[in-house]
Amino acid sequence: MDVRIGIQNSPRELGFETSQSAAEVEQAVAAALSGQAPHLKLSDSKGAVYVVPASALAYVEIGSEESRRIGFVA
Fold first, then answer.
1. N or C: which end of the chain has fewer CB within 10 A?
2. DSSP string computed for the chain
3. How many CA atoms lie within 13 A of 36 on its CB side?
4. What digits encode the pLDDT tens for the residues 2-49?
5. Distance of CA 53 to the CA centre of its chain
6. Is 54 exposed, middle or buried (0-12, 13-18, 19+ CB in 10 A)?
7. What pTM did the predictor assign?
8. Phi, psi for 59 (deg, rounded to 5)
9. Residues 6+ apart with CB under 8 A from 33
10. Cβ neighbours of residue 34 under 8 Å, at least 6 residues apart?
11. What domain of life does the native source organism fall in (predicted)?
């Protein structure tokens, strides 16, 4: 699943692929935004961990769980 995180006052975004489900990512984002967690912590499929303060979140885009197709699509 592809995840992109926008950070306030930063021209770049964090983009990575995670093995977590969309529901798990959405639950972590909701907990950070509601104040239950002081930061958003997600890990990618290679084992790297991303920690973003909840107050700095601009947006979180959760992609589809479908794998990308290779080749030509008619």
1. C
2. -EEEEEETT-SSEEEEE-SS-HHHHHHHHHHHHHTSSSEEEEE-TTS-EEEEEGGGEEEEEE--SSPPP-S---
3. 8
4. 999 999 999 999 999 999 999 999 999 999 999 899 999 999 989 999
5. 13
6. middle
7. 0.79
8. -160, 160
9. 54, 57
10. none
11. Bacteria
